[in-house]
Amino acid sequence: MQANEMIALPTPELEKKLDDAYRELFNLRFQRAQNQLKDANTMRRVRRDIARIKTVLHQRKLAQQQQQARGEA
């Protein structure tokens, strides 16, 4: 999933996707340990998706904090 697509999603849906991605990564690690993992690039893709989701969520949090700070000033 691209970052542009993630930005368009609401926060609760992004948090659900983050949880799903962590579960998928967990399962991929088990597959790798048992030598059942067919494509090693899958783990890399999932890790990058997690990073993208976390970045978008962090940007939203910072934007919300800035709005609150402007409202108090």
Give a written overview of the molecule.
It is a single chain. This protein has 73 residues and is mainly alpha-helical. It has a single domain, classed as Helix Hairpins. The protein contains three helices and no strands. The longest helix is centred in the last third of the chain and has 32 residues, at 41-72. The N and C termini lie far apart (38 Å). The model has no long low-confidence stretch (mean pLDDT 94).
The largest sheet, given as strand count, sense and whether it forms a barrel, is: none
CATH class: Mainly Alpha
Shape: elongated
- N-to-C CA distance: 38 Å
User: Which topology does CATH recognise?
Assistant: Helix Hairpins
Count of the domains: 1
| Structural class estimated from helices and strands | mainly alpha
- Secondary structure: number of strands: 0
**Fraction in helix:** over 70%
- What is the second-level CATH architecture? Orthogonal Bundle
Query: What is the H-and-E element order?
Result: HHH
Q: How many whole angstroms does the radius of gyration measure?
A: 16 Å
Overall pLDDT, averaged?
94
- Number of helical segments with 4 or more residues: 3
Strand content: under 5%
* Low-confidence runs of at least 5 consecutive residues: none
